[in-house]
């Protein structure tokens, strides 16, 4: 049992349980999930979105999803952007208002996202490659957060 | 000219990016490797070329996606498709819903389940097992998740074992990811005959 990943830790999987056994049969998936986390939270080429900003946005999205433990874990790396982890902040202090509004909508009101939301980022001077980077960060978190919520339910552990 | 598709369908639309996909001519070696472009394989979809803007993420995503949807054991492929479809319906990702409804129908050799879902949405009446799977995946796809112990109990009552429930969590969650790329970065469109390019 050498599997140590954010998702399994956050979900509180206990070794030796039936759930732990099921997880072990999908060990490769949990390892790749952890690699995916590194690729969007701590990429070698972060573009204009620093590791600290990414961590702050991740904490914010976890909070929007009522995942307090995961939010705290990401907020620890948010550095100067820590204020963004609070969904009540609009990003004006850090000069990322459009980015924050976009990330909130993609995370929480996915179905309502339209071409106008992409145009708004482009109008704010965000390059297309950097829009894709924001989407990959947001999209990965949607996945990781739901894996954690689902595993916790499976294990009968309360949040 | 093309028309944006707004209703759920099993006829897979064309995906039209809202950002400019990466230009293959300008690609770095790392991007070419991630795209698996070789002299004999130079056809890459606009979707993959769009994601190639974030090549580090693209590289790890494809094997993870394939493992969750296709690895042996655990939940049947058709039921994983149902989990993917439920997420795509919650997020209104027309493109993903079409692909995975079509695959479900192919695997099951029946359109009954996806006909019901597209006609009646979340009120659709399904077999007890499909109903438990669909309802759980829908609840897990909300933000925040509204899945609760009652959903888990329904899955176990319907006969799903631990490995199957784990695979359902993974496939439904994976489409929380896929939908936020497909539905956000592009439009599902039908090209008119005359204006097709």
TrEMBL record, chain B:
Domain Carboxymuconolactone decarboxylase-like per the UniProt entry, residue ranges: 62-102
An example molecular function term from Gene Ontology annotations: peroxiredoxin activity
Keywords: Oxidoreductase, Peroxidase
Matching Pfam families: CMD
Classification via InterPro entries: AhpD-like, AhpD_core, CMD-like, Uncharacterised_peroxidase-rel
Record keyword tRNA-binding present: no
Protein name, as recorded: Peroxidase-related enzyme
Organism annotation: Psychromarinibacter sediminicola
């Amino acid at each position: 049992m050498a599997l140590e990943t954010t998702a399994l830790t956050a979900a509180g999987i206990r070794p030796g349980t039936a759930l732990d056994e099921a997880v072990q049969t999908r060990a490769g998936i949990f390892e790749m999930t952890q690699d995916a986390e590194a690729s969007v939270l701590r990429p070698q080429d972060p573009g204009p979105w620093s590791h600290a900003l990414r961590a702050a946005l991740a904490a914010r999205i976890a909070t929007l999803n009522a995942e307090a433990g995961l939010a705290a874990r990401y907020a620890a790396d948010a550095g100067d952007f820590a204020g963004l982890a609070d969904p009540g902040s609009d990003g004006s202090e850090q000069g990322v208002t459009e980015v924050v509004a976009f990330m909130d909508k993609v995370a929480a009101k996915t179905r309502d996202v339209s071409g106008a939301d992409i145009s708004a980022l482009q109008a704010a001077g965000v390059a297309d490659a950097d829009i894709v980077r924001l989407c990959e960060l947001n999209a990965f978190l949607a996945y990781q957060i739901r894996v954690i919520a689902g595993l916790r339910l499976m294990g009968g552990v309360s949040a | 000219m093309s028309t944006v598709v707004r209703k759920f369908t099993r006829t897979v639309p064309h995906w039209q990016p809202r950002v400019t996909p990466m230009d293959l001519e300008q690609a770095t070696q790392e991007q070419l490797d991630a795209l698996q472009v070789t002299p004999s394989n130079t056809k890459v979809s606009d979707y993959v070329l769009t994601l190639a803007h974030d090549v580090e993420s693209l590289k790890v995503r494809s094997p993870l996606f394939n493992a969750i949807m296709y690895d042996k054991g655990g939940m049947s492929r058709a039921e994983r498709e149902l989990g993917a479809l439920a997420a795509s319906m919650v997020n209104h990702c027309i493109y993903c819903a079409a692909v995975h409804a079509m695959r479900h129908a192919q695997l099951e050799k029946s359109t009954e389940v996806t006909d019901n879902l597209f006609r009646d949405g979340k009120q659709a009446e399904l077999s007890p097992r499909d109903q438990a799977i669909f309802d759980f995946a829908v609840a897990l796809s909300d933000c925040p998740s509204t899945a609760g112990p009652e959903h888990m109990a329904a899955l176990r009552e319907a006969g799903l074992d631990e490995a199957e429930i784990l695979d359902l969590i993974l496939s439904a969650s994976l489409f929380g990811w896929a939908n936020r790329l497909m539905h956000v970065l592009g439009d599902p469109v039908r090209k008119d005959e005359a204006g097709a390019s």
